[in-house]
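During the no-cost extension, the postdoctoral fellow (Dr. R.K.) reprocessed legacy sequence entries with the updated structure-token encoder. One reprocessed record is reproduced below for audit purposes.
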Amino acid sequence: MPASLRRQAARLRASYTRETPSLAAPGIARHRHNAPAPGSGLGLDVCTAAQRRLRALLALGMFNHGPTSLWPRHISLADITRYTLVISPRHDDLVITTRAPYNVTCWLIGRDRLPHIGLPGLRVESSYEEGWRLRHLPTGATMTVTGDPDGRLQGPTDPDSNYSRLWTSDIPVSDEEHTTLNALPHLTADTETLLAALTVRPCTHAPDASWDIGLWFNDPTDRPQRGHAHHRRLSVEGDQCTLHWDSDPHPEDLQAALTDPVIGLAGAIGHPTRSGWLLHCGRACLTAHPAAYKP
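Re-encoded structure tokens follow.
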């Protein structure tokens, strides 16, 4: 792809994802002659099978929160969306930039002497001054968490700092982590694609402000908040996924993020239902049941 078209596509993607153009550029799908066409998601959903699996697991953790959660209570990945961050998906990496990289990493990865185990099997592979390269041992997929808005990792960290207490890649997957992973439902490729699409879109919004996901914890528009409990429940049976939530985002905003003609998941089709909406992608189906707003 010519450099000018890549820059144009990166700017368009950044207008939806809150990435900087420099952060967005490595995530643009590498077409030989042309820029990604509208409806391609601009690279948000183009990834390796290992990345797709990792993002699907992250979705199960991020969208299960509160008393109805289907994941163990000591795995609270939903808390990473309490921080100001930007998610930048790439073909073989998932980059998170944030002003609090250590806090976000601590929710993702277990630490010594703490019961919280993060995403089972996720470890620090290498540490830097303001960020970490992470690897998910069961899949081999990588993540990056950094304080640099352009996604860079610079400078080694002090090996004697508190950061060294994060679990590293030389610590094998524990029996507890194996038990948690083995208890998860079987996920087909289409289901993984749909769940992965949820993981990479919490920061997305329309450039004209017609919809905004707001990181699932706030609504940046003038509309009233839908609630403050932030309970979420994402269940999966085969290709059937069901998502309940009682706070922001507004239901129509989430559907828009997944079906937008520019940034949406390719092939995703949404239909309204009596209590929410239904979204199809391949053989996978997502039923969304947002709780009614109570002022």
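Residues 189-290 form one domain. The mean pLDDT is 87. The remaining legacy entries will be reprocessed before the final report is submitted.
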